[in-house]
Amino acid sequence: MPPTRTRSASPQRVRARRVGDSGSRAPTKAPQAASSDMRHLFALEAQRMQATRLRERAAQEQWRERTRTLDEQLEEERRIAKENRPPGHEWRGYQDYEVELLRAQCEEQVASLQADVLARDEEIKRLRDLLGQYTQQASEQASAQHTWAARVSDLEAQLRTHDARTQQLRTEASDALAHTRGLEARLAEADALRRHLHNQVQELRGNVRVYARVRPAARADPVAEWRYPDAALLATQLEVHVPSESAMGHASVKTHAFAFDHVFPPAATQSDVFAEVSDLLQSVLDGYHTTIFAYGQTGSGKTHTLEGGAGIDWQHAAHAMDDDAGLIPRAMHMLWRTAEAQRTHGWSYTFEAQMVEVYLDQVSDLLSDASRRCEIKHTPTHTHVEHAAVEPLTRPEDVYALLARAQKRRQVAATRMNERSSRSHSIFALRVHGECTRPDATATTHATLNLVDLAGSERLAASGSANDAQRLKEAQSINKSLSSLADVISALAAQAKHVPYRNSTLTWLLKPSLSRGAKTYRT
Ligand SMILES: Nc1ncnc2c1ncn2[C@@H]1O[C@H](COP(=O)(O)OP(=O)(O)OP(=O)(O)O)[C@@H](O)[C@H]1O
């Protein structure tokens, strides 16, 4: 460390200050006094300078001592360094030692750097491997992308083809729709024509037709012989050959010949009978009232023909459509089938039924136990029997339950009123409401199909009613209603101006169905 030097004021400066001082103070001071001060001042200055020289000399001495000590320390360190220098290295002074130190540091750094380089090499290798993997993946992805691009391009081409095809199909569909509309219009016309022609055919066959059905003989030795001369052709003729004996005892055979629209021999099945009248059912769906009467004496097979064989148990529907099933269940099944087929022409149908009987010119309900007197009301579309149940039918089998109910009611009445069923007319009325809701045409139809089981037609004498007041009353009522029916049918057949519907409850009840335009059939 260099010695700290303190600056002392120079004699000139001191002197100058003194001169100034004297100048500002008393210019009148004596020159001798001033000279003495100066001398004193110089002496003081000389002393101070001497002291300074002494101090500087001491400091130099101190520095010299310090330098010597440092030199000795340096020499000692060199010696130690020389002793500690590594073998094979020539000592070339302190710089060599520093060089060695630096070299050692450098080697240490080099080793560290080499380790670092190795680590980095490892890292680089790992990264290279990774890069390789990524490159391969990228290559695979590029390949997959290429494949997908090709697939997308392929699909786009397919899509374009499909679009074109869809467009073409749309055009075709539109053409087909227009064509279908045209066909529908033609179909509607054809349907209307079919209805018209069907009606004409029915009219040509006769709006009033009479069929005869001969039931199998109940006895082994029948009193008469029944013949069917044209059975193989038209089956319209029936001959009854009755053996007789004259008063003279001559035996002869009396022949009674009849002609009908169709004759069913005893071997005719329920299905044969239904086939003959089934075209009427189309008329019902087309909106024409239709009535089928079963007429004949007690036990001749009216209920058998209309409802079915005596063995049918309507409570158990499984037996309902066997061979013995009559016109009512068969008609229901056919109506539903035909109505279903008509759906494609835009027609839908609803069905509802009433079952009533006319006994002693009074109408009563066969479907309910209520004993209220029923009233006949004619509406513009159908005849309604007030206070009688109206049952909607949603499937043909629904009718079995109605027949079962009616059968039960008739049995109750039979025990109470002595075989009343033979002495009442029972009417099954099916109301059919059709609605056409095609876009090009709307129409509705209302028609009723009446299936009438007429009361036994035996003569008063033959039935033995003459001696029984109740039976007599019943027989008179039956005869009156049957002859009224005959009158109405005759008037209709003769196209008379006045048709006597009001002459009996039966004809009044069936008025709309017997009016012109309606179809009436009697078996
Ligand atoms: N074509 C037929 N084949 C077989 N059996 C028949 C035939 N017609 C009627 N029968 C049978 O004759 C019996 C009487 O028939 P059904 O009850 O139908 O007569 P009906 O005319 O209705 O009598 P009623 O006037 O008393 O009601 C029944 O057992 C029935 O099964």
TrEMBL record:
Biased region (Polar residues) positions are 1-11
The record's Gene3D superfamilies line, in alphabetical order, gives: Kinesin motor domain (3.40.850.10)
Share an example GO biological-process annotation for this protein.
microtubule-based movement
Residue ranges of the region described as Disordered = 1-38
Provide the coiled-coil residue spans: 152-207
| Every Kinesin motor domain range | 207-523
Spell out the GO cellular component terms annotated for this protein, sorted alphabetically and separated by semicolons: microtubule
Q: Name one Pfam family in it.
A: Kinesin
Q: What name appears for this protein in its UniProt entry?
A: Kinesin-like protein
Write down the species: Malassezia arunalokei
Q: What's the name of its gene?
A: KAR3
